[in-house]
Specification:
274 residues; alpha+beta; Immunoglobulin-like; Ferric Hydroxamate Uptake Protein, Chain A, domain 1; five-stranded mixed beta sheet; elongated
Length: 274
């Protein structure tokens, strides 16, 4: 074989090795980043709605502010050409929503509760400015969620504080599974040495107990040796809320073939001095 042929062969081999290394690096990076992005999405809630005028026509370019009354953090958005506004990745909490537009009076909606892994809708109809300056609405909880297809139940901090949560280790949020449709009676499985955290589990919609996935602030909580149990059961007083999805899961849950996606959210600080 001539020297030029040897050189071309060596160059081609080098290109193949470099290309294979680059492909492996990209795949490894995607594997590392994808779970984190998916877990992050279940930590937050969304807020959306339509802004219309007295005739029902869309109001584009309306200024929308969402103020977290506990932390004082404000998010700002604008309605699009169809009059729709959207906030993604809102920290769970109670919000004050203020919407205003040129030639229209401001409308303030108070006590808007945004929960993790849910979409809250607040539609408003603005009034002409010469007729009204500001309208304040005390918002009530919605009876039906229409912006998401998943079936989920929200366990609020008031339920965790007031309902009986009995287990052999004291109060456990898992004891409230009994009030969620599709859940069986949660029991402690395995011995004290095999389940020292006294985790409780049950079947959901007839599925396997190993199909339940529990996350604490987005981090998967799994007891490797006994996958039906969780590795850590947080104290009830530290929990802000628990969101449990049992069917028609959104993609971020990663629950293909699973039974229940249980998302536990720990209380965070506020700007209030008690």
């Amino acid at each position: 074989m001539s020297n030029p042929s040897l050189v071309r062969s060596a160059l081609n081999s080098h290109k193949i090795v470099w290309l294979g290394t680059a492909v492996c690096a990209v795949l490894l990076l995607s594997l590392c980043l994808s779970p984190g992005a998916a877990n992050a999405q279940v930590l937050y809630g969304s807020l959306t709605g339509n802004v219309t005028d007295p005739s029902g026509a869309a109001v584009p370019g309306a200024h929308v502010e969402a103020l977290n009354v506990n932390t004082g953090v404000t998010r700002v958005a604008a309605s699009d050409a169809s009059g729709i506004y959207l906030f993604n990745e809102l920290q769970p909490g109670t919000y004050k929503v203020t919407i205003s537009a040129m030639n229209f009076g401001a409308l303030v909606t108070e006590s808007v509760r945004v929960d993790a892994n849910t979409t809250r809708r607040v539609d408003v109809q603005l009034q002409l400015k010469q007729q009204v300056e500001t309208v304040t609405v005390t918002n009530a909880a919605p009876l039906l969620q229409t912006d998401r297809a998943d079936v989920n139940t929200q366990l609020e901090s008031s339920q965790l504080a007031n309902l009986p949560l009995t287990s052999s280790a004291g109060r456990s949020f898992q004891a409230l599974y009994r009030i969620i449709p599709g859940f069986g009676i949660a029991v402690e499985t395995n011995s004290g040495s095999g389940n020292p955290q006294r985790s409780m589990t049950t079947n959901v919609n007839g599925g396997s107990t190993q199909g339940n996935a529990t996350r604490i602030d987005g981090a998967l909580d799994t007891y490797t040796w006994l996958p039906a149990n969780v590795a850590y059961v947080p104290p009830v007083d530290s929990i802000e809320e628990v969101n449990v999805a049992t069917n028609s899961y959104d993609a971020e849950q990663g629950m293909a073939g699973g039974s229940a996606a249980i998302n536990v959210h720990i209380k965070s600080g506020t700007n209030r001095v008690l």
